[in-house]
Amino acid sequence: MITFTSQNHYKKYLKDINECLTSPCHSQAVCTNIPGNFSCTCNTGTYCVVPSAPPLNVTTHSRGKTLLVVSWQAPDKRLWDGELTGYQVCYSTLESDRNAKCLMTATFLYTISKLHPSTKYFVTVSAGTRAGYGNKSLEVSTITNGEPVNPAGMSYSTVNVTITKPAQYIKEVMVIVQNATSSQTPSEDIQTKDLKPYQANIKGPYVTAYLKADNLPLTIVIGDGKEYNFEKVKYSNQPLKQNSHYIVFLRFFESQ
């Protein structure tokens, strides 16, 4: 019984709710009701079953040409069904692939490497006890960055680059220009949210064009001075400076 005193100084008695009546634990675990809460204990020991719930908030944080960084949070502790021993990260280029490649880790952050550029990957994460791994999280999908493009021709202030037709699931293409210096940031470390249209005296990489994949030209002239409008944003394809070195790379999106 739980006793408390109200503001009117009357004592009231509330009966504790038995949460175990709703079967909140795994089918192979025993539920024990405690005041204001409940606990789950395996029939044959602490590690008899796998977690009943997947990890929470599975997201991808940054992207490179050949890597994805994935993070997550632990499942609801009431559904661990034992002590967690680690996590399993699975990925594939196919949706709901039963033969996805899986890797194990004990942290909440994992970098998947040796991937293909400009490719869509599906990722899931599951939590494990000594009995094995439980349910997988909902799939999250991300497209890796493209390779730097090679020039097909150039002039004093422009560079012609050829764009290979992307996969059908790619709907938008971002064209980025970066000054090539010894201290430049690797393209895979550049966050998409930090990329902006060209501005005067800009020192970092900038978006010179944002294009719909349906209207993607086979060749684009970097530095032709044209403006590319995309969803109320103007991207200026600024002429390049003479005697300068540049890197041009692409980023692909299903949608922004």
TrEMBL record:
The keyword Methyltransferase does not apply. Keywords: Disulfide bond, EGF-like domain, Receptor, Repeat. This is Receptor-type tyrosine- phosphatase delta isoform X1. It comes from the Eukaryota. Pfam families: EGF_CA, fn3. It comes from Paramuricea clavata. One of its GO terms (molecular function) is calcium ion binding.
